[in-house]
Amino acid sequence: MNIILIGMPTAGKSTVGAILAKVKGYEFVDSDLVIQIEEKRLLKDIIEQEGIEGFVAIENQVNASLDIEHSIVATGGSVVYGREAMEHLRNIGTVII
């Protein structure tokens, strides 16, 4: 089972997620870092080059393809705009908003 944390930017999802993962003995996944690794660009560069809509599309695709188990996931604040991502996240774990 995974626990997926969703909330506004700077709400503390990554901070709480890392602590929760340690306490539960789970892996910690920051989906913003996964996006940067897969895109080989910083988030600000993706937004600058692709615009907000392009970034949201990339974020949707990356989150919809997460293949993880026993993890705490801190998502980016705009993950809620991606239908496929939200459906996938609900299927692979408990979503906490």
TrEMBL record:
One of its GO terms (molecular function) is kinase activity. Keywords: Amino-acid biosynthesis, Aromatic amino acid biosynthesis, Kinase, Transferase. InterPro entries: P-loop_NTPase, Shikimate/glucono_kinase. Gene3D superfamilies: P-loop containing nucleotide triphosphate hydrolases (3.40.50.300). Pfam families: SKI. The keyword Transcription regulation does not apply. The keyword Hydrolase does not apply. PANTHER family: SHIKIMATE KINASE, SHIKIMATE KINASE 1, CHLOROPLASTIC. This is Shikimate kinase.
